[in-house]
Write a sequence for this structure.
């Protein structure tokens, strides 16, 4: 490709990335004021969990609406200058159920609300969010949460970092460059991931609609990038739980360790979907195998499979992972592998996905041969 054309494509890609980063502040058209930013939530037939954050963002540059590049640059600057609102009262309403939650010292709020009767054939629901006694009447927005339908036969809880996305997810600049400047050939994702997760979503019948919940150690600032990445590669939509601040203790200067966050998040999901068994997917680089084995021991009969993406390239670590369940006195195979095809083949053998899904993973290049 000629250098001039390549440079032009890079500029277009970088502008697309800039737009994604600036997106969270665009709701006020540059006027500034209070702003509620909800994250995708998840729910059951009678309960919903949802998170978000309340900011005050500066208002300037509203006259630049005609120049999209300048508008995006200004909106990105406004995002960097946003200040969290501590102690804001957020009113949450779904149909006839309403509750009020308060933001913490970082501006985050957490909704864990009991619901009345819900339709059994609807997967995505809208929830109204507003500020009680708002100083700015524009501080209202709509959030969404997912509930599995009656056809779901199991759920999936998957790590993101080094499981779905190649290492570097916590480095926003590197992620943006790989995702937007290098495009679909950037190897942001491990090969075969979209096809494997589509197989999980479709399940045993091909139409199960199984819920997928994703967890990440990345900062909340990269949330929008992850959403764009999932949409671009057609990974099944689902709530993304950022572990960095999830479960913050009151009065604590430092957040709890990510491994504690992950255990709390998994236990919460299992409790919410107490009638569903689950598949756990993680990687060998951190503590996923040990955490998942502990969850397996706590929930006998509820964990259908544990898949660990082997990124450590250490035979001793691989052997230790394979022996974890047996050392815990549990007759259970923890599948540790570098590629998605092996995971798909095992899932098909266990009757968790269809054979067509395995073929799709193979066509998607699911055999891992290293990253460029």
């Amino acid at each position: 490709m000629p250098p001039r054309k390549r440079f032009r494509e890079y500029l277009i890609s970088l502008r697309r990335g800039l737009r994604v980063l600036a997106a969270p502040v665009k709701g006020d058209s540059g006027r500034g004021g209070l702003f509620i930013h909800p994250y995708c939530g998840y729910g059951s037939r009678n309960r919903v969990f949802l998170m978000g954050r309340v900011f005050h963002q500066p208002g300037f540059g509203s006259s630049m609406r005609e120049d999209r590049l300048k508008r995006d640059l200004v909106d990105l600057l406004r995002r960097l200058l946003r200040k969290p609102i501590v102690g804001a009262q957020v009113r949450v309403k779904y149909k006839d159920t309403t509750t009020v939650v308060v933001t913490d010292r970082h501006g985050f709020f957490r909704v864990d609300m009991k619901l009345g009767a819900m339709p059994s054939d609807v997967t995505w629901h809208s929830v109204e969010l507003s500020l009680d006694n708002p100083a700015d009447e524009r501080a209202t927005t709509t959030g969404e949460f997912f509930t599995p339908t009656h056809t779901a036969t199991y759920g999936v809880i998957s790590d993101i970092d080094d499981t779905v996305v190649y290492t570097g997810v916590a480095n926003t600049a590197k992620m943006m460059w790989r995702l937007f400047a290098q495009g679909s050939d950037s190897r942001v994702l491990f090969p075969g991931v979209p096809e494997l997760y589509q197989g999980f979503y479709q399940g045993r019948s091909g139409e199960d609609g199984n819920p997928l919940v994703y967890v990440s150690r990345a900062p909340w600032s990269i949330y929008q990038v992850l959403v764009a990445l999932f949409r671009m590669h057609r990974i099944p939509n689902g709530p993304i739980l950022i572990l960095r601040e999830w479960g913050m203790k009151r009065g604590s200067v430092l957040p709890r360790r990510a491994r504690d966050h992950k255990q709390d998040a998994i236990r919460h999901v299992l409790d919410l979907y107490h009638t569903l068994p689950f598949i756990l997917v993680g990687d060998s680089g951190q503590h996923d195998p040990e955490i998942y084995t502990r969850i397996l021991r706590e929930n006998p009969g509820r964990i259908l499979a544990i898949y660990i993406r082997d990124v450590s390239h250490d035979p001793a670590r691989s052997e230790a992972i394979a022996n974890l369940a047996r050392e815990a006195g549990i007759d259970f195979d923890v599948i540790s592998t570098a590629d998605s095809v092996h995971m798909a083949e095992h899932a098909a053998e266990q009757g968790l996905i269809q054979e067509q899904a395995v073929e799709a993973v193979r066509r998607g290049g699911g055999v891992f041969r290293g990253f460029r």
Remarks:
- Residues 246-256 have pLDDT under 50 and may be disordered.
- Residues 155-363 form a domain with the Rossmann fold fold (CATH 3.40.50).
- The chain has two domains: 3-146, 155-363.
